[in-house]
Amino acid sequence: MQDFLQQTLTGDPPRSRRGSTEHLDWAWHGEGILSLTPHKTTHQALVLSAGIHGNETAPVEILNALITPLLTGARSLAVRLLVVLGNPAALRSGKRYQQYDLNRLFSGRWQRVSELAEAQRALQLEQALETFWRTCRDHEQRWHLDLHTAIRGSWHTRFGVMPHREQPWPQPFLDWLAAADMEALVFHRAPGGTFTHYSCEHHDAASCTLELGKALPFGHNDLSQFTGAQQALAAMLYGEALPPVRQPPRHYRVAQQITRQGDNFVLHMGEETLNFTAFPQGTLLAEEGDKRYYVQQAREFVLFPNPHVAPGLRAGLMLVEETPQTQALAL
Asked: What are the residue boundaries of the Succinylglutamate desuccinylase/Aspartoacylase catalytic domain, all occurrences included (predicted)?
């Protein structure tokens, strides 16, 4: 198998489910799930995932371009690697999801809608990660990078969303995110149902959702916008030096979440509102029945505003920017 993406999009398993090159062994563990194990000793166990949302194609193209030289034997591998294309059915249809947002179903939340295909996929991916990390050695650091693009445009073209974590973030992980040209990092303060929350909460992995531009169909992505991220990923996979940091990312923390509960929900933001748009204190953000959401801090920035989510799901996050002093306390 030399093209993981094309093989996955066919919907069929490869003729050979295992193989090897001069540098590594590879194994197909199911649709869109591939492990690559170097012949040499490694100090890192890495999960790279993309395509959790089927209309977010740029990260899928980046990921496939990175692993193709590994599968052909043109490059050696410096980490023990699990590659995941999250929602192949949605990738084939070009839709965000088929029945339910897969990235809200991890950490067992799939049980609420267990009859749906996305719920069964969430369980399969949880099991794949558990199997992968069960074989970790004590000296191996665990990282999970989940590559996405946002529905809307953004004042920060490239940013990372960090799951809730009790322990301090490993400095090498933060250094890697800076080298990957992330313009901003957003720190959650509560657990959630995303893939990276699952990795962090259940497997103590340093994990991050990387948002790389705006969602576009296959073949319509300007991958030059993500050169820094691709170079940093290549450096980690191939054992090379990281690119220099152009500018440290700005840090934000989640101040409040806007949740849609039913059909009467109104979000007071237009479709043109960009991620990280700032609103002053007292601004009415959304309402539903007697419930009102206002800006509570002097200034808050919106992230992922979407009034069309299913009832019970997040319709937006409001952020506050952290100063160097508050960053030191948080990390």
From this structure: 44-235
